[in-house]
Design goal:
- The complex is a heterotrimer.
- Chain A is an all-alpha fold.
- Chain A is built from 13 helices and no strands.
- Helix content of chain A is about 70%, strand content about 0%.
- In chain A, helix 3 crosses helix 13 and helix 10 packs antiparallel against helix 13.
- Chain A is flat and about 75 Å long.
- Chain C is α/β, with parallel strands linked by helices.
- Chain C contains 19 helices and 15 strands.
- Chain C has a five-stranded mixed β-sheet. A four-stranded mixed β-sheet of chain C has the order 14-7-12-15. In chain C, strands 9-10-8-11 form a four-stranded mixed β-sheet.
- In chain C, helix 2 runs antiparallel to helix 16, helix 5 packs across helix 15 and helix 12 crosses helix 19.
- Chain C is globular, with a radius of gyration of 23 Å.
- Classes of the chains: A mainly alpha, B mainly alpha, C alpha/beta.
- Chains A and B meet through helix 1, helix 4, helix 5, helix 6 and helix 7 of A and helix 1, helix 3, helix 4, helix 5 and helix 7 of B.
- Chain A: InterPro entries: MetI-like (IPR000515), MetI-like_sf (IPR035906).
- Chain A: Pfam families: BPD_transp_1.
Amino acid sequence: MANMVRRHTTSARLWRAGLYTLLIVAALVYLLPLVVMLLTSLKPLDDIRAGGLLSLPSTISFEAWSKAWSSACTGMRCDGMSGYFLNSIAIVVPAVAISSFVGALNGYVLTKWRFRGANLCFALLLFGCFVPFQVVLMPMARTLGWLGLASSTSGLVLVHVVYGIAFTTLFFRNYYVSIPDEMIAAAKLDGAGFWRIFWRILLPVSGPIITVTVIWQFTQIWNDFLFGVSFAGFDSQPVTVALNNMVNTSTGVKEYNVDMAAAMIAALPTLVVYVLAGKYFVRGLTAGSVKG
Amino acid sequence: MPSNVSAPATGERRHRRSLAGHIERVLPRLVVAPSLGVALFFVYGYMLWTFLLSLTNSRMLPQYDFVGFAQYARLFANERWHVAATNLVVFGGLFIVSCLVIGLLLAVFLDQRIRQEGALRTVYLYPMALSLIVTGVVWRWLLNPGLGIQAMVRGWGFEDFTFNWLVDSDMAIYTLVIAAVWQASGFVMALFLAGLRSIDDSLFQAAALDGASLPRIYTRIVLPSLRPVVFSAVMILAHIAIKSFDLVMALTGGGPGYATDLPATFMYAHTFTRGQIGLGSASAIMMLCGVLAILVPYLYSELRGQRHG
Amino acid sequence: MKTIHALAAGALLAAAVGQANAAEIEVLHWWTSGGEAKAANLLKEKLEAKGHTWKDFAVAGGAGDSAMTVLKSRAISGNPPAVAQIKGPLIKEWGDMGFLGNIDKAAEADGWDDFLPEEIAAADKVDGHYAAVPVNIHRINWIWANPEVLEDSGVDHVPQTWDEFFDAADKIREAGYIPLAHGGQPWQDATVFEVVMMGIGGGDFYRKAFVDLDPEALTSDTMIKALKTFKKLRGTMDDNIAGRDWNIATSMVINGKAAMQIMGDWAKGEFTAAGMTPGEDYECVAPPMTESMFSYNTDSLAMFDVDDEGKQQAQLDLASIVLSKDFQVQFNQAKGSIPVRLDVSLDDFDACAKASREAFDVAMDEDALVPSLAHGMAVSDSQQGAVFDVITNFFNDPDMKAETASERLVSAVRAAE
């Protein structure tokens, strides 16, 4: 669309030049914090002490990165962020998988097998999106204690699934609404049942929305700090807790270059996901979830 | 379970089919039931518990000496709570409007057959991938007059340039808006872009043939059809605004003074670091009431709209 | 083959020791920065030498705020760690709720009462029994000064009275430096205020105002004077203090942008990291009128009530390691604080630590040893928060009068009860 104004007049050229300038300036503004992080992580500590956040490093060194990865102290363990990655992955993978699957099923039922009260049911689920996590911290601690899941990876997975379902359901429901009901009706006439329709008809066309949901959930859970710090055990703390311990020392010497390197390392997985899958993200949104 | 739907033997066909039909009728509800149960317990049950706590005199840990609505009276007598509540209105309003405007503009501009669109899109989108624990520190540096943008621009020779919102009690709340918009506007851009792409091209062509100008096409045809996107975006932005916690902690710590306190940080401070669980719970309940005030009208219009269409 | 045998024998031996009284104990703490962590690692090694296992649970942030959140969530889930870093009056609160154990056995065996300062030992007891072990003593009332900046401004010594201070500040400002480096965070504001207030009011007044929270003291003329002096200090700082971390303020003193900073003795770590020597490259002096006073901040490890006998033994072992002489020396040298044991020699410590110990002794004699409110040693956390709110708001609001602030202190403290 919008290809109707491609007349080669000076004003059109000016308009496009302005457009590009605007977009590029905006891009620079968006990039600024990342650039500061990157520059700082590559500077020796003396450069930072001397001031000048945006100054170029006098010498580029990757020392801070290797320290953040393998030897910075995150408590008494001084082996950097590396060990915490597995912990985070052990939480994120099952939590994303389960919450996305449950969300897909819910979306499927709430759009294609509507029963009386389905709308109310959706509304009730949706409210879960809005509950501030600080509010549920205490009752959740009590519940995990009852379930015997306190300070464990499974407990954390449970927490993330519970508060992820609201969003995944929202995404899938909005996507499935746009899939014509006639397809389902036809399948039913052919004798296909509940599960077969889900597996054979809906899931195969759900690629885009699965991408959106997985990216969203992955980002949310990977970046979570509050639940991670409250409900993890000493041996299952996620990356964000390690990062916090590194960055937020209260009465110790701060090494900003290591802090920033650690922050970049902690953010790498989500950054990579956005860069690689960003295209599908917009496509997934285009494919239907914008409908409401 | 899929065996339920496979073709049965001839003799029992009728019977099996009705049984299968029965299961089929109940199955959808069974599938949603666990999620609903989880929500009832982990969302509504917890709210109820929080409400009970707000009626008690709980301090460091929950206890059950009921004091009626005394905590609410204390909450409303608390000046800091008023600051926090006002801040949420200012912050939330500006944040949502700015994200919508910037997101829409970026989306419309990106939709003009831009070269390297993918790269630009990723650049606008990436802040969403980062945790504010990380970016809050960087924003604090950038917005600090002595270290960041002000110092940089002055370094270029503009000695009178001033950008000191972070250290100004009256303006600090706007720095929260800047950082939050930076983080979320790319996501809104993606939503709008997706909306623009799903508009039928023939609409454009028809309008163009009628001689409508480009701005006119956008205001008359494109924007109205983006209404559902606006709803989705507002929903997601509102939830971000209400949950904003990391942002405040990392960027301003609630300061100067408590000028940038938000209800979420107020609630956390009183419940966890100040041993006033009763008061903290009362503030949590007030927050949830605020959420309901936004969510119920939205859901009403949304779900009612569907019934008609 | 031989080595395998040796290994197997060693393993057997370890297993035997383990069966006797060894256990795994989880320790929640916020010692995460390089120096602190190294110091605390000593503790871990010594504990493990006794056959126990240290399970490390570190949570940094907000001077222990985050760690306390985690501790509460763990306690509510019925799964508290065996040992947790808790400070001041909070130890009693946890004890009163029945969460803490009893380590009198270790205290008696090592004779803690003989070498611990009485006031500090009292904070670690619940109903007369030791439930926690103190680790160190930080002094809050310090001015860290850059002598070159002072000299360049024509100020020949660190001011001893507030009048002198403001005169000196004018000179320093004229010479183009920032007189006082500061970070505008509530706890830093409160730190500076309590130092000003204790100098103006003295030890007894400080205790009345900031330990008993006596309304009369809070609205007294002395308090108003302290508040006014505090507000006047705002003019000796730069414009960009809001949200600044304390160590950034310290680095302003280090690199000669600012002349002085009021901060506890952990600031030493920053100077040391910059390769500076106390007494030569930088000075540590008591702030005006607090020379013979000592505002303390002590870290303690509280022992939670555990059933397992092995764990109880591990707690006792940990407690006696913490108070062993060599650990006290090594840990406190790394942390910038002074040993909590009065019978430990400070020969190997730097000049500032020695001065800190001298001030401590004098303050004990003169009844001028006071707990720091800004660092959670004096009042409950709800009252501390209420005081922070008023102080920081007063400091940041150019229009608020000292009289208004002192009235607000009274009402805020009452509301937080």
